[in-house]
Amino acid sequence: MAKLKHLAAGAAVLLAATTSVQAGTTFDAVKKKGFLQCGVSTGLPGFSNQDDKGNWKGIDVDVCRAVAAAMFGDASKVKYTPLNAKERFTALQSGEVDLLSRNTTWTLTRDTSLGINFAGVNYYDGQGFMVKKSLGVKSAKELDGATICIQAGTTTELNLADYFRAQGMKFNPLSLDTSDATAKAFDAGRCDVLTSDQSQLYALRIQLSKPESAVVLPEVISKEPLGPAVRQGDDEWFNLVKWSLFTMLEAEDLGISSKNVDQLKRSSKNPSHMRVLGVTPGMGEKLGVPDDFGYNIVKQVGNYAEIFDKNVGEGSPLKISRGLNALWKDGGIQYAPPVR
């Protein structure tokens, strides 16, 4: 028994030593190199896509920019790695990217078996179906025997099989590597239906040769909480990414925006404002960054409402309503723990 106790104690010491050596490696590496390497999609309007000048834009991109603003005080300190669905997790696991912010669904299997942690949800979504209006289809329950375009390496493959099995229907899958390829195949008539997260369907529809020829069906067949992910084993980095996203949500909840952030920092006596904007010291220190990290995020990137509206909402070509992504007090489910 004494020998077992000594062995257990030795194992505990070794584990503690290993943990202390590994702790903070991503945080420290990003800080040392002076920029964040962020994994994004190969091109999905509204989420992560290059404009005609080669600049990356989108709600996922703004998560990357918020983290850079928090760490460096400069939202531009980001380099982007475009990844398709099949290669995204390998890129994160291998250290090719520091952060994966690529319309990725948080699931139990991914959270437990891939060595990654999801740092929150920046878009609540659900899987749907898009068809050509000429088919005259009004419901997904009319799709028995259809050929369906689908992106390989995504949860949509599993959801699709589950849904059709539950409905007693059959389908013919046409699996392609990228969302852009699925849209082109659908546009060319190679499949009757395109399935993906509903937000992605709206993004892909505007890329069709005749966007008005397609319609998104009403059924939503899954829960797709999309959010940024980091490698497990680096709590300091995990905390920074998580609270960079939460800060944008909390700022909207408190009425802090890029338009009034300077005035509120100067004159607001609201304790919550003062903590978020770094007037009251201590919040940044807990994350290993300057106390004004929240101010830098809101000033340079915006609050959650601002990044939603310009990228996927009414201020964008997608015109997606807030829906579930409205704040908790406005009928949605978006919610940030308090900054205190």
TrEMBL record:
<feature type="signal peptide">
    <location>
        <begin position="1"/>
        <end position="23"/>
    </location>
</feature>
<dbReference type="InterPro" id="IPR001638">
    <property type="entry name" value="Solute-binding_3/MltF_N"/>
</dbReference>
<comment type="similarity">
    <text>Belongs to the bacterial solute-binding protein 3 family.</text>
</comment>
<protein>
    <submittedName>
        <fullName>Amino acid ABC transporter periplasmic protein</fullName>
    </submittedName>
</protein>
<dbReference type="InterPro" id="IPR018313">
    <property type="entry name" value="SBP_3_CS"/>
</dbReference>
<feature type="domain" description="Solute-binding protein family 3/N-terminal">
    <location>
        <begin position="35"/>
        <end position="264"/>
    </location>
</feature>
<dbReference type="InterPro" id="IPR051455">
    <property type="entry name" value="Bact_solute-bind_prot3"/>
</dbReference>
<keyword id="KW-0813">Transport</keyword>
<keyword id="KW-0732">Signal</keyword>
<dbReference type="Pfam" id="PF00497">
    <property type="entry name" value="SBP_bac_3"/>
</dbReference>
<dbReference type="GO" id="GO:0006865">
    <property type="term" value="P:amino acid transport"/>
</dbReference>
